[in-house]
Specification:
Chain lengths: 294, 367, 370
């Protein structure tokens, strides 16, 4: 399975062109919440954020900081209380569902695969935004589905049923479905949760490849800060519904940030292989220890 | 693994961005049939189509059996001739006036129940969530009985059944938290609603004279005896509109089997879709109840047979309707002939056959 | 090659599939927090009990005074005092008094049967009527009728055997599958069993050419026209049930804490469970033989009892006695008054009173566990 040794360091890939242009997907004073009137909880409060094109953006933060809610808002799954999500400069709420689905593909954290669905069928669902009631299949659909399965490295299992596959295989099948949507943007909610280390690496490398080779914009919610540091080009650190740091991992991840996010102490060293920040010596902060003792 | 090399070459990019990629000549994916006429291109799963064909054949056979068997036995040729008014007067009378209308009513109700069940199951993501279980049948029955015995027959049973079904649906879903509700909990809320309406039906039957109540009894358990022609016509209209509509919604239904987030991500208007499916299911159930009473088990058994025969490919709407019609015709035939001269209401036959099946699903399924 | 590589990771798929389960099914999981909260809010038994008994007595009086016939409450009151017309005295003493007595016994039996069943199934929704126990009893009676067993005393034993079979079946489903984790699933299984048995009962009675009215009695239940002799036939089994219940109370209270705890306290959970099921069958079978299948009393009454004075079965059972009488007789009195001179089936009224309780229980954010 070894991929050829070429590494895509963020610096090499950065063509600098994206920096000057306005990002395709951004939020403007976005406020998201749930619940009804009295018990209304604001999860995201007045968030303005741009997601750089053609890069892997990782959203990190402690549990309940609003990462997944933000992702749902970006994908138009959740109506904003105020503010807006702008896709190519237009408010996403004013776009047609199908137009959004042609630009943004989403991979939710919880996927439920109905009985009897094979990989090929699943990936075919990704073509739906491009199809109509009377144009249900075309040559292009077929080539895109095949290419998506090849890209996600799941083609050899195309006629297997999802329910009979391992978690890693299933996750790749879902990613293939998202790819078949042919969208410039790909949103992933904890794409590696419930995967073992080998599968995690597989999925992350696939994600990196998609951004750097296929020039897709990828936004993912990641639980594990270490993986985010290793694989993301752009890091968005969230705490209590606000962004507290944003930028390339090597620049924004500091012991102070880690303390603020997770309440733990650590040291950071550059990864000898990739130059990305590496967390070592993680332990609870002193305040936390004394706080819990009282 | 030579094919794994592909993803690093830029072929994916080009295949995706240029419509005329020279990858290969297009063909139908495995297990499907693909038709093209000019700009129109349809892709259909093969297994459900075959299942539908098989079920159609079985339905025709059982229809013939239903026309020939009975207290006055006819042979096949006589029965076929009698349909077109040829042959002995008695034969023509039995077939044209008694058996054929009953057969058509049975097919219509079975198809409507099963189609409604299939829609509701897909909507709720639960194979137990049929209109009968969540109380819609009982609601429709209660209102229809009210129109027959309670309030005088001034209002047409189909209209009353529809309003009853809508009320029950609103209660069942409203009490358990919205249209998208999943899980078992709302089923039990529905059982409670159904029990309430069932009690209401009994309450109305107790008010009227014993003769009327005795006449209405088979109808409350579900029977093809008490149908009136008007209701059958309304059922026919509902099916003529409902079946194509359901098939048109079929692609969306397929996507709805995933989670809401996935379906929304694929550009499906999930909320609108759910509402349409719910209404369609309720209208079909009400139309069927107005004809045959609460034979809710068809809505469980029909789609189950269809799903099994079509190997769980897609949402087998057409096959469900056909399977429902087949089951209903067979159950009515069994009720008429097995204990002859006694006639067992089709609802009781279906409950005897369907309930063990329901139990089996409950005790077996891992989810 | 690819496939070989994936095999060792199959456990991952099991993990992810379990996490992908619809979250609502996980909600009813046991959580002791509401129970502990309730402890503070509940009332002492000695405060509630006199009030409940007083209300029960009032409903008994109402049951004697009001009826579907000509004799109005004032005439009936006079008859009770030893005055009044011959007709009124006949109606009160010969018709309403036995009926009230039967109602009292049936109400107590159904309420206690429900409370016991809920403890043993550890499920607040386990109700003999909903779960098909009553339906099993009436099906057994219907079969006995078909076979020509008309002896009066036999009905009770036949009904109890039917109830026992229904009970055993439903309780075995609890053990078979995840019904233990998902209380709602048991109700669905019970509803399926119930609808099967009701259909079979109707079928048997149809074959036997019974009138629709009698079919309705064994499908819906009623107190009308039952004689005291039927009650006498129930007494031996009722006595047995009372003795067994007194013996069961302590071990059952321990069983609520969990099987292992109960064994640790020196009880034998399996034995306790079996005897409880027997008691439930005795109670519900006898009640069904007396009044037909009457649903929802065994759900609503223990629910109210628990809400008033906590989940301890020893308190619940005591409170179930007056509350059961109250609910059953209230339903019966209403059934006589709604459409005079005819009567409504009793089961219809108890359903109208009890089904909202079922909906309320299910709607509760967390199902209270027992």
């Amino acid at each position: 399975m070894s991929v050829d040794a070429k590494q895509y360091s963020p610096a090499q890939q950065d063509c600098a062109s994206h920096l000057s242009l306005a990002p395709t997907l951004k939020t403007d004073a976005l406020t998201l919440g749930y619940g009804v009137r009295k018990q209304r909880v604001k999860v995201i409060d007045g968030l303005t954020l741009g997601l750089p094109d053609g890069k892997v953006t990782a959203i990190v933060g402690p549990n309940g900081c609003g990462k997944s809610t933000l992702l749902a808002g970006l994908a138009r799954l959740q109506l904003p209380e105020s503010g807006s999500v702008l896709l190519e400069g237009k408010d996403i709420q004013h776009l047609k569902r199908r137009d959004v689905a042609q630009r943004i593909a989403l991979l939710p954290q919880e996927t439920h695969s109905p009985e009897g669905v094979t990989v090929h069928e699943l990936v075919r669902f990704g073509r739906q935004p491009h199809q109509g009631a009377l144009s249900q299949w075309s040559q292009q659909d077929q080539s895109v589905v095949t290419a998506a399965m090849v890209a996600a490295d799941i083609e050899s299992l195309s006629e297997r049923e999802l329910s009979s596959m391992s978690g890693g295989q299933r996750q790749r099948a879902w990613i293939a479905m998202a790819l078949a949507q042919q969208t410039p943007l790909l949103l992933l909610d904890e794409p590696t949760s419930a995967l073992d280390l080998g599968h995690q690496i597989e999925v992350f490398e696939l994600i990196q490849r998609l951004a750097h080779v296929e020039d897709k914009t990828i936004v993912m919610v990641v639980h594990d800060l270490a993986s985010a540091c290793r694989y993301a080009d752009h890091l968005v650190a969230m705490h209590a519904g606000r962004v507290i740091a944003e930028g390339p991992p090597a620049e924004v991840v500091t012991p102070a940030l880690v303390r603020q996010l997770y309440g733990v102490e650590c040291r950071l060293i550059p990864d000898p292989d990739t130059g990305t920040p590496l967390l070592i010596g993680v332990r609870r902060t002193h305040e936390r220890l004394s706080g819990s003792a009282t | 693994m030579p094919e794994t090399k592909l993803y690093r070459s830029p072929t994916f990019c080009s295949a995706v961005s240029t419509p005329t990629s020279p990858l290969s000549i297009a063909s139908a994916p495995a297990g499907t049939l693909w038709w093209r006429w000019g700009a129109v291109s349809l892709l259909v799963y093969r297994a459900p189509l075959l299942a539908a064909c098989g079920l159609l054949a079985a339905l025709l056979m059982s229809s013939l059996a239903s026309l020939t068997l009975g207290s006055a036995g006819l042979d096949l040729l006589d029965a076929l001739k009698a349909i077109f008014g040829i042959g002995e007067f008695m034969h023509v009378f039995v077939v044209q006036e008694l058996r054929l209308p009953r057969l058509l009513a049975g097919m219509g109700t079975g198809a409507a129940f099963a189609l409604a069940g299939c829609l509701m199951q897909t909507l709720a993501g639960n194979r137990l969530a049929t209109p009968g279980i969540i109380g819609i049948d009982n609601g429709a029955t209660a209102f229809a009985v009210a129109s027959v015995v309670g309030l005088g027959a001034s209002i047409a049973p189909p209209a009353m059944a529809l309003s009853g079904a809508v009320v029950a649906m609103a209660l069942a879903f409203g009490l358990s938290g919205g249209i998208g509700t999943r899980g078992y909990r709302f089923l039990v809320a529905g059982i409670g609603v159904g029990a309430l309406f069932g009690a209401g039906t009994q309450l109305m039957l107790a008010r009227v004279s014993i003769d009327v109540a005795n006449n209405a009894y088979p109808w409350t358990v579900g029977s093809l005896n008490a149908r009136d022609a008007n209701s059958v016509i309304w059922l026919g209209i509902a099916m003529l509109i409902g079946l194509p509509l359901a098939l048109w919604l079929g692609r969306g239904l397929n996507t709805l089997r995933f989670t809401d987030r996935v379906a929304t991500g694929l550009g499906l208007p999930v909320a609108r879709m759910r509402l349409m499916i719910l209404w369609l299911s309720v209208v079909l159930t009400a139309a069927a109840v107005a004809v045959a009473g609460p034979v809710g088990m068809v809505a469980l058994v029909g789609p189950e047979i269809a799903r099994y025969l079509s190997r769980h490919k897609g949402v087998p709407l057409l096959a469900s309707a056909l399977a429902g019609a087949l089951v209903m015709v067979l159950a009515d035939l069994a009720g008429r002939t097995l204990l002859s001269p006694l006639e067992v209401p089709v609802g009781i036959v279906m409950a005897v056959v369907g309930s063990p099946y329901l139990l089996w699903i409950l005790l077996r399924s891992p989810r | 090659m690819q496939a070989d590589e994936m095999i060792p990771r199959s456990h991952v798929s099991a993990m992810s599939s379990s996490s992908a389960m619809p979250s609502s099914s996980a909600v009813p999981m046991a959580d002791s927090a509401p129970a502990t909260r309730k402890v503070t809010g509940r009332l002492a038994l000695w405060k509630v009990m006199p009030l409940a008994c007083a209300i029960a007595l009032l409903t008994c009086l109402a049951s004697l005074l009001w009826g579907a016939g000509q004799v109005g409450p004032m005439q009936a009151l006079k008859a009770l005092m030893g005055q009044g017309s011959e007709e009124a005295r006949f109606v009160v003493y010969e018709l309403r008094a036995p009926r009230t007595l039967i109602g009292i016994v049936v109400g107590m039996m159904l309420a206690c049967g429900g409370a016991l069943m809920q403890v043993v199934a550890r499920n607040p929704l386990a109700e003999p009527g909903l779960l098909g126990v009553s339906a099993g009893a009436s099906f057994a009676v219907a079969v006995a009728l078909l076979l020509g067993i008309e002896a009066a005393g036999m009905h009770v034993i036949v009904a109890q055997s039917g109830a026992l079979l229904g009970c055993l079946f439903v309780m075995s489903t609890v053990r078979v599958r995840g019904a233990r984790q998902d209380p709602v699933r048991l109700v669905l299984a019970g509803a399926a069993l119930s609808s099967l048995l009701v259909a079979l009962t109707s079928l048997v009675l149809l074959i036997d050419q019974r009138a629709a009215d009698e079919i309705r009695f064994w499908v819906v239940g009623s107190l009308a026209g039952r004689s005291l002799s039927a009650l006498y036939h129930c007494l031996p089994s009722l006595l047995l049930a009372v003795v067994l219940t007194l013996w069961l109370a302590r071990p059952l209270a321990a069983l609520v804490l969990g099987e292992q705890v109960a064994s640790g306290l020196g009880h034998r959970p399996e034995r306790v469970r079996q005897i409880t099921i027997l008691v439930v069958a005795l109670l519900v079978g006898a009640a069904t033989a007396l009044a037909g299948p009457v649903a929802f009393v065994g759900l609503a009454v223990p629910y109210v009892a628990r809400a008033l004075c906590g989940a301890d079965i020893r308190r619940t059972l005591w409170l179930c006695l007056p509350l059961g009488v109250t609910m059953l007789l209230t339903a019966d009195v209403i059934s006589r008054l709604v459409v005079p001179p005819s009567e409504l089936p009793l089961g219809v009224l108890t359903t109208l009173l009890g089904a909202p309780v079922l909906i309320a229980v299910v709607r509760a954010r967390r199902l209270p566990t027992l």
